[in-house]
Design a protein that fits this description.
The protein is of the alpha/beta class. Helix content is about 35%, strand content about 15%. The chain contains 17 helices and eleven strands. Strands 1-2-3-5-4-6-7-10-11 form a nine-stranded mixed β-sheet, with helices on both faces. Helix 7 crosses helix 11, helix 9 packs across helix 11 and helix 10 packs antiparallel against helix 11. The N terminus is likely disordered.
């Protein structure tokens, strides 16, 4: 099987681009939203096999039937050659991305699967077209607002006040989201499904599989977020591990090593410069106009983390470090930081991000353990501090008993991890895989976050096409270095 073309890091991070919906069945707590006035496919280029629709659900299914309702937007790309096979449900990451934006996967890397299986995407409540909890600001007009904080407390305090006018923020959790997903499954008439989840979408996929195992034929989870992850408790250590692994592979490479001697020392000098104060640099907006911004130490660390999300960014990083050390110019890091922030600002639901992480992760971090969690990591406690500051003011929803217990479902599950992943490293995938009686854990030696689109693609496609781990092809043989020349 020939692997599909691998999307670059930016494409994977933003594989967001399509919507669809259709009329529905009468379900308890959910009714088809035939009277929606806006077009759920508006602004999206879809092929003739795509269908768009809304399902209207009670925001609080346990409340009165006259309570507030919200739309749940879904997209179906029908099989090219329908064969009565189970569909694949795709779950996006973040949390905060809308799954209907993953239509690019259905039409690209997973096109062979879509030949005989429907591809279904449901915007999680609080994202996309499902009552999005968005906190946008105009970073193009005001680039400086992207710097100084990952999450500006004043901005998000104002956003929370605004969102509470149209949403009960306690009702936007993973557990409630999967109930919506199952309603869409029934609405569309599917008995069983296959699951693919990327990044936070792996938690949605695991939660659905735990709640509805009888309706899942097989699953692929790529860049795995365990139920007990406690994001961002592990972020500093996993980022440092990713950076160390990139530097080690560069040193061992006959091309990268000589061109970038002693990377740890060069990187340390950049950190030293920023510890003395922010660097003033000039970045470019999409229209090529420029703006002066202040790149602080935390911004630099977050820029490095963003680069390491993709294997392409990891390959570029040594040269960027060497050049910045030689010239003192940190503009490329500021530009990478700004580009990523502006891209997420277009479609990312920050309010849903906090609703999930504050309830399911950050609230379980003991501040007394923070020094040990960040020891030896260049970014220190920056990300824990940023999340903790927001979550002290955000609504923390209660989560159900057992929500942090591992998944133990018997269905076939392919777990995929990237060796260089700075956020969900292979150790996280192993924590999930060891509790699954019918799982394979594939660690891809030359990939980072979202490792299933390179040399591992034939294994991913095999599971999605056959709903089985039997006959899983051997992949990525001989891949031992991030900087090895590609054929």
């Amino acid at each position: 099987m020939t692997p599909p073309a691998r999307p670059d890091a930016a494409v994977f991070a933003r594989l967001l681009a399509a919507l669809l919906f259709s009329p529905g069945l009468g379900l308890p707590g959910a009714t088809p939203a035939a009277a929606q006035t806006d077009d759920p496919c508006r602004g999206v280029e879809l092929g003739p096999r795509a269908e768009c629709g809304y399902l209207t659900v009670l925001e609080d299914p346990s409340g009165p039937a006259t309570g507030r309702t919200i739309p749940i937007r879904y997209l179906v790309i029908r099989a090219e050659r329908p064969a009565g096979r189970e569909p694949v449900f795709l779950f996006a990451g973040g949390p905060g991305q809308g799954s209907t934006d993953l239509a690019g996967l259905a039409r690209g890397p997973f096109a062979s699967v879509g030949a005989t299986r429907d591809m279904v995407m449901v915007d999680q409540r609080g994202t996309g077209g499902s009552n999005p909890l968005a906190c946008p600001i105009d970073l193009i007009a005001n680039p400086a607002l992207a710097f100084g904080h990952v999450f500006d407390p004043e901005k998000f305090a104002r956003c929370r006040t605004r969102l509470e006018q149209s949403a009960d923020l306690e009702l936007y959790t993973t557990e409630r989201a999967i109930v919506d997903v199952d309603r869409v499954r029934r609405h569309l008439g599917y008995e069983k499904i296959l699951v693919w989840g990327g990044s936070y979408g792996t938690r949605i996929g695991q939660a659905y599989l735990r709640a509805y195992p009888e309706h899942v034929a097989a699953a692929v989870i790529d860049g795995v977020v365990p139920f007990d992850f406690r994001a961002p408790a592990e972020y500093a250590a996993s980022l440092q591990q990713s950076l160390d692994r990139v530097f080690a592979d560069c040193a061992a490479s006959p091309d990268c090593g000589p061109a970038n001697p002693d990377l740890p020392a060069a990187f340390g000098r950049l950190l030293g410069t920023l510890r003395r104060g922010p660097a003033t640099v000039t970045i470019r907006r999409p229209d090529s106009s420029t703006a002066s911004v202040e790149l602080a130490l935390g911004d630099f660390g977050y820029a490095v983390r963003g680069l390491l999300y993709g294997s392409g960014g990891g390959r570029r990083l040594p040269g960027m470090v060497t050049e910045a050390d030689r010239t003192g110019d940190l503009t490329p890091f500021a530009q990478a930081y700004f580009n990523r922030a502006a891209g997420f600002n277009d479609s990312f639901a920050d309010g849903l991000h906090f609703a999930i992480f504050c309830a399911e992760d950050v609230g379980f971090i003991d501040q007394g353990e923070v020094p040990a969690l960040v020891r030896g990591a260049f970014i220190g406690s920056y990300l824990i501090d940023e999340y903790s500051a927001i979550c002290r003011e955000w609504v923390r929803a209660p989560i159900g008993p057992g929500a942090r217990e591992p998944l133990r479902a018997p269905v076939p599950v392919l777990v995929v991890s990237g060796w260089f992943d700075p956020v969900t490293p292979p150790e996280a995938g192993e924590r999930v895989a060891r509790h699954l009686p019918n799982a394979r854990h594939l660690i891809v030696r030359n990939e980072a976050h979202g490792a299933g689109f390179g040399c591992a693609a034939p294994a991913v496609l095999h599971v999605l096409e056959t709903a089985s781990l039997d006959g899983l092809p051997e992949v990525c043989a001989g891949v031992t270095n991030l900087f090895a020349r590609r054929r």
